[in-house]
Structures are given as structure tokens and as C-alpha cells.
Amino acid sequence: MRAEPHMQDLLIVFIDISRFERTMHRKDPLSIASHLERFYRMVGSAVRGAGGHVCKYLGDGAICIFNEADVDAGVCAMLDLKSQADGWMDSLGWDSELIVQAHYGSALVGTFSDGDASFLEVLGRAVNTAATLHSTGMTLSAEAFRKLSPETRKRFKKHSEPVTYIRTEDPHTRRRPRGRDL
């Protein structure tokens, strides 16, 4: 997909596996690589299935975008992905969970090239806002929350200043690690 760089209103999503570094140091690197590949497949399938794009994978995380028309589907896909990934990591005995941060705003998006390869990139203040949202599980900015359908909004609750919205089952503060031996 080739897209000239342009400003666009988007849902920008950062996902990351919590406490991944601790898990990585206690496991065989080849095993971790195999698990990350499965994680990437989960992420890619969820994002593409909701009409979005994975801009890039960053180790145990990713940056994803959804067009305005796909915001609700994208948020629902991230809710499902979080549940799926959390269950998968629990089955592996990892003391980790998927952290999701999403913001809706205007960003520079387009295809860029380093001369040999082309890649989709998203840049700007809205990207930084998404990246810096505090999350104990899944957090939406107020701007992202306002783009949701009334039904999807019911899956979130208001959180402290600055106002964000978290899944109804997420605590307002970070839980302590379960203390399980990895």
C-alpha cells in the first residue's frame, strides 16, 4: 500500500506486553522468538480483521492505526485481543498482560522509504498522546471514547484527570505482580 504523507484523523493504538523483559530473561531466547511470532500473528489478525493497519512491531509491542470509520471495530478488536493475549500469556505461565493505549486525533500518515524498503509511518502529537497514556490494562483517551458507539462505551469507565477511559474490569491503579515464578 503506497500512501503519500498526509494529515488524517485516526485511532492510534500502542500495545505492549507488560513485564516482558523479566519474562525474557528467564526463558530460552529461541522459545521467546517463537512466542513473539505467535503474538505478532494474533495482533496482525485482530488489527486487519477490524480494518486497521499495523504500522510497526517494536519487540513485544506494536503501533496500529484505524481510520475514523473503523474506530469502534478497532476498539472492540483490541478488547478481544487483550482477552486472547492475556489468556495465552497466562497459559504460558508468564506474569504479563497486554497493555493497550488508544487515542483519536490528527496525525501525519504515509508511506516512507529508506531507499531499499517502504514502510507505513504515523507521526505527530496524537501519536505521542497515545504513547503516553497511563494504562493498567486498556486505556482510551476522551477523544477516542467519544468516537465509540453507545454499546461499546458501556465496556469502559471514566478514569481520573486527565480524563481517560479504562475497561470496566481494570483497576484504577496498577495491580501488583502475581508473584508467580516464571
How is this structure best described in words?
- This protein is 35% helix and 32% strand.
- It has one domain: Nucleotide cyclase, GGDEF domain (Alpha-Beta Plaits, 2-Layer Sandwich), CATH 3.30.70.
- Strands 1, 2, 3, 4, 5, 6, 7 and 8 form an eight-stranded mixed sheet that branches.
- The chain has 182 residues and is α+β, with helices and mostly antiparallel strands.
What is the fold-level CATH name, i.e. the topology? Alpha-Beta Plaits
The separation of the N and C termini measures: 41 Å
Structural class: alpha+beta
Can you count the helices? 6
How large is the radius of gyration?
A: 16 Å
Number of domains: 1
How large a portion of the residues is in β-strands, by DSSP E? 25-35%
- What order do the SSEs take from the amino end to the carboxyl end, as H and E? EHHEEHEEHEHHEE
β-strand number: 8
**What is the level 1 CATH name?**
Alpha Beta
Approximate helicity band: 25-40%
What is the CATH architecture term? Answer: 2-Layer Sandwich
Which term fits the overall shape? globular
What do the pLDDT scores average to? 89
Q: List the uncertain runs.
A: 176-182
By CATH, the superfamily comes out as Nucleotide cyclase, GGDEF domain
